[in-house]
Amino acid sequence: MIKEVRLSAPPTTLGSTDSTSSQEHKGVPLLAAAKSAGVEQQAILEAAPVEQSYSGTLALYLRAKHDQVEHIEDRLEGLIDRQRARLQQTQILAPGLLSLPSSKRAWQSQQAQQQAYLQTLQARLDMVREIKEGMGLHSPKLEELATRKMCAENSELASNWDSMREVTRRHELLMRKQDRKQSPGLDQGGSQTLGLPAKSI
User: Fold this and answer.
1) Span 14-42, pLDDT tens digits
2) What crossing angle do the helices spanning 155-194 and 14-92 adopt, rounded to 10°?
3) pTM, rounded to two decimals
4) Which of 169, 165, 153, 135 lies closest to 58 in space, CA to CA?
5) CB 3.0-4.6 Å disulfide test: which of 49, 59, 86, 158 passes with 151?
6) How many whole angstroms separate alpha carbon 51 and alpha carbon 59?
7) Average pLDDT, stretch 160-164?
8) What does the alpha-carbon distance between residue 27 and residue 29 come to, in Å, rounded to a whole number?
9) Closest CA to 43 of 160, 159, 179, 175
10) How far apart are CA 21 and CA 99, in angstroms?
């Protein structure tokens, strides 16, 4: 009589299953972070032409705005010089002591008008120089004006630039987050080494 022999599979230990499952769960966030970093880096590489185009276009607008401001400044300076000469000429033609009161009043009114116009020109020149040399909230005022005009006339380029900056910002945040995750492990390793008991001599 032949006895039936049953073969049974070796028992599976619970510890090995849990260890494998734990390692798989730990690997999921790392894999996701790696994929995210790869996507961010690829986006940064693709955004390089956008940055070059933005910088080049902004440089053109900044040069045009600078030339415009210098032209206005030169024009105002010329008007001020002519106005001062005109004011000096009217002072030379001041009515004498024997002139009629009406003539004196007319001359005084003309002098006041000429002086007011000179002050207006000087105030405008000060404003132009403030724009040319002054600072805005984050950059020179002239650059802010050039950037505003460029973005208004090149909306697609401005949108691509904003998208690129957002990608770069998220990439930097991700890198800082990964650095913070790695730092505690290094600190713990160092503390364990320092915590070893000293050998007796």
Assistant:
1) 444 455 555 555 555 555 555 555 555 55
2) 130
3) 0.58
4) 153
5) 158
6) 12
7) 86
8) 6
9) 160
10) 111
Q: Could you tell me the two tokens for 41?
A: 């880096």
DSSP conformation letters of the chain: -PPP----PPPPPHHHHHHHHHHHHHHHHHHHHHHHHHHHHHHHHHHHHHHHHHHHHHHHHHHHHHHHHHHHHHHHHHHHHHHHHHHHHHHHT---TTS-HHHHHHHHHHHHHHHHHHHHHHHHHHHHHHHHH-B-SSSBHHHHHHHHHHHHH-HHHHHHHHHHHHHHHHHHHHHHHHHHHHHHHHHHHHHHHHTSPPPP-
For residues 65 and 140, give the distance between their C-alpha atoms in angstroms, rounded to a whole number.
12
- What is the DSSP track for 12-39? PPHHHHHHHHHHHHHHHHHHHHHHHHHH
